[in-house]
Amino acid sequence: MSIPQDIREFINEYPGVNDDPDASENLAFYSNNLRCRPDNVLIDEIHEQWLGDYRKLEYKHGFIQWLFPIREYGMNWESQPLQPHEIEAIKANAEITTRVVKSYELMLDFYGMRLLSQETGLLGRVLPPRNFETRYRNLVTSSHNYLRISRILKCLSEFGLEQLNLGFLLHILNEQSEFNELVANGLQNSMDRWWANCLRNQQDRIWVGAAISRVRASEFVFTRKEYEKALWNRKQNGWFGAMCKETTIE
């Protein structure tokens, strides 16, 4: 399956895109010193007030470019593309990096998921009284979230948090393969062409792509046990290890 042009540019770290030292609004926003536009809220206020406000997260659109800036223009022209000097400053600041992860957790909750390990990227379903089934249905039917997820994954990679991408992708693959969740055609197409390629580490990208292909071909079931083992191996050894053969479908 061909890789879309925007993903190729992302993988190659946007060749030809130069740094603008005068553009620092993303850094100021994540430093909690600038209110995003048009919503006029600080990053800490979003984290404190918007968690669980699913209607707001569904129907407002301008905030996503501020929470997950990338080196591309989005639909909110009141935001700025991410600049290389901002990337380095954000990665070097533990407090700001924590805010980036909190933004990710905010959207995970909206999608019916929760972060279990920042180190490995391991995800689980949201706990009651949250209802993961309702959130999963919303993700399946609200396709504008597919573009949001591409942006989220690109952003996390920019800030050196690509293990979170791996945890997200393989969580969805486990849900699809073992539990028949999140299996809509549009979602799977976005996952296979866009999300799975939002990995700059070529070795990881090849492994994840191969796992997805095997699941799509009904060659094996990607179980929760296999998911957890793959992430653990990746953290400990820098490599997922061999794909399970014991769960092959007869």
Automatic annotation (TrEMBL):
InterPro entries: OGF_rcpt, OGFr. This is Opioid growth factor receptor (OGFr) conserved domain-containing protein. Signal peptide: none annotated. Residues 22-206 form the Opioid growth factor receptor (OGFr) conserved domain. Pfam families: OGFr_N. GO terms for cellular component: membrane. It comes from Leucocoprinus leucothites. Belongs to the opioid growth factor receptor family.
